[in-house]
Amino acid sequence: MTYIYDVTLNFNETLYDFFEWNNSDSLTHVRKIPIFKVSNEVFIDILSNVIKVSDTILSKIKDKTDVYGKKNKSFTACLIRNEDNIIALKFNEDGVSKYISNIVVEEELDILEIKVNTTKTFEYEIIKPRKNLLTTRYDSMNKTYIEKQLNSLSIDKDKEKIKYLYFEYFGKYITDETLALNKLKKEFNNNSSNDLKDFFKLSSNKY
Question: Engineering a disulfide at 58: which of 95, 102, 174, 195 sits with its beta carbon 3.0 to 4.6 angstroms away?
Fold first, then answer.
């Protein structure tokens, strides 16, 4: 088994590019972690899906990843690479890759220089497609914020606020607050415009 040493990882259920890591993220400074080299086809399969590895693979990686600063702290994880890319997977006790992480570019380039033989049979089954961001992490957070703001508005309690927001955004006055809220939600669903986040913040403060 080949191991890689001294790697910083950011495990999440969704894969984020390293330049989108936040200061609030809980980074894992790994002292030692096993690595597998696979074909491009297998790499894309693993990248795109939550997988469950075979008992044979699980036995090779179970509790073999060590973390800095935590005595006797280990968990089940591994790096997966092809010729040009590397990802990290963190598994539960059943061998399901619940969490995934990218790697800082400088560390990735160093690891790609290390000779690792291709694993002929990396046995796994696909559990489900992994949720991948079609936009950036920032855009996704904005969308969640706007959606929460819209869903928090109550027809009974926020009638005037809804009509105010509608007027501020569309530049038109409307008397039907139900219709106004539905149109705001439709605009969000059709557009998902990030400027809506700043609009809601500013308009809410003014209101």
Answer: 95
